[in-house]
Design brief:
Length: about 120
């Protein structure tokens, strides 16, 4: 446990987080999954301080690869990530059922012609 109340439960190697572990901070940020050289690396589940939840791949502490990001408002993105942002093929579904499916570039939807307006 650190002075600010945050804690890590898992293994350390040479003083840094390594292998499977759980981290919790006092601002309610949580991560459970794989660590490498002190960073989230591999698969894991992250719950942000604002309540958003990500389940998927990480690389050097950032969302990278395939994953699902569920926002506090109920919308969710399923697809590819790079450097912590939606990047590549993916689909954003809004709480009302409207979808945005196609290519994403650094968190920005790039295929407005592929917008699919299905509503539940």
């Amino acid at each position: 446990m650190w002075k600010d109340g945050s804690f890590f439960q898992g293994t350390f190697q040479n003083g840094v987080k390594e292998g499977k572990g759980f981290f919790f901070s006092m601002d309610n940020y949580q991560y459970e999954g794989m660590w490498s050289n002190g960073f989230q690396h591999g698969t894991g589940v992250e719950i942000s301080s604002n309540g958003d939840k990500y389940k998927g791949a990480f690389e050097q502490g950032l969302k990278s690869g395939m994953g699902v990001l569920t926002y506090k408002d109920g919308s969710f993105y399923a697809g590819e990530f790079k450097d912590g942002l939606q990047h590549g093929k993916g689909k954003l579904t809004l709480p009302d059922g409207e979808n945005f499916e196609g290519l994403w570039d650094q968190g920005v939807f790039k295929n407005p012609q592929q917008r699919v307006a299905f509503r539940n």
